[in-house]
Amino acid sequence: AFLINVPYLLYTYNLTGKLFYWGSAGGDSMYWMTTPYEFEYGNWYSFEEIEKDTSLMDGRLMIVGNPIKNNHSEAIQEISKYKGIERDDVLKRMAVENIKTYPGKFIQNCFSNLGRIFFNYPYSYTLQRPGTLLRLPMNGIILILMLYSLIPTIINWRRVQYHLKILLFIFIIYLGGSTVGTAETRMFSIIVPF
After folding, report:
1. Average pLDDT, integer, range 95-119
2. CB–CB of 106/98 below 8 Å?
3. For residue 60, what pLDDT is reported?
4. Residue 23 DSSP class
5. 122: which residues sit within 8 A by CB, 6+ positions away?
6. CA 52/CA 139 separation, integer angstroms
7. What is the spatial distance between Cα 72 and Cα 97, in angstroms, rounded to a whole number?
8. Is the model more confident about 55 or about 178?
9. Which pLDDT does position 56 carry in this prediction?
10. DSSP letters for 80-101
11. In the 8-state DSSP scheme, what is residue 160?
12. Judging by DSSP bridges, how do beta strands 56-57 and 60-61 pair with one another?
């Protein structure tokens, strides 16, 4: 898989001078994941949609007006000066500053990400949808089985086959990485076979 992507990575390296630069959305995702505001849980929003001041954003009904625009007006003004890679770098700097200033809120947003991965809940300023009720039983059963299966795995770690240890390691890295970035329930579907 990596070899197939090498031509693209060479292309982005020639454009940016940065190794392993897959795209310019990382700063955007990091910024929203580190949001320090109350009732914001680290899910992603489009800056362009926020600027339109719409009450229906990304299929999510905003509760009162547009509190996201009010909370992030300074960031919107700052990033509007930049495009592409420069904008990505500015957003990453803002995200790192948010983590340093509000580490507890970042950890809370990580837990909210786990909720979105497994149950598609919670989202900032969003009324709940009945579809969430459909995910709760099925994903809840899978999550409980995953957690219970860890006990015999840990107890019998020396007897676990090498290739299963590698799969578990990949699973943990994937889930951990998804937790610190903006996550959605579709990311859980990918790891269910593991």
Report:
1. 95
2. yes
3. 52
4. -
5. 41, 112, 115, 116
6. 35
7. 14
8. 178
9. 46
10. TT--HHHHHHHHHHHHHHHHHH
11. S
12. antiparallel
Q: Is the pTM of this model over 0.70?
A: yes
Closest among 126, 118, 101 to 41, alpha carbons compared: 126
Instruction: Read off the pLDDT of residues 135-188 as tens digits, 9 standing for 90 and up.
Output: 889 999 999 999 999 999 999 999 999 999 999 999 999 999 989 888 888 888
Angstrom CA distances, 29 to 45, 129, 145, 180, 182, stand at: 9, 24, 30, 10, 6
Residue at token pair 């790891």 = 191
Tell me how far apart the 2 most distant CA atoms of the chain are, in Å.
58
How does the average pLDDT of the chain come out, rounded? 88
Q: 70 or 106: which carries more pLDDT confidence?
A: 106
- Report DSSP letters for 24-71, one per residue: S-HHHHHHHHT--STT--S----HHHHHTT-SEETTEE-SSS-HHHHH
The helix-helix angle for 162-180 and 103-119 (nearest 10°) equals: 120
Give residue 131's pLDDT: 79
- Give me the half-sphere count of Cα atoms (radius 13 Å) on the Cβ side of residue 38: 0
Pairwise CA distance, residues 169 & 179, whole Å: 15
63: pLDDT strictly greater than 80: no
**Amino acid found at 81:** K
Find the helix or strand (DSSP H, E) in which 164 lies: helix 162-180
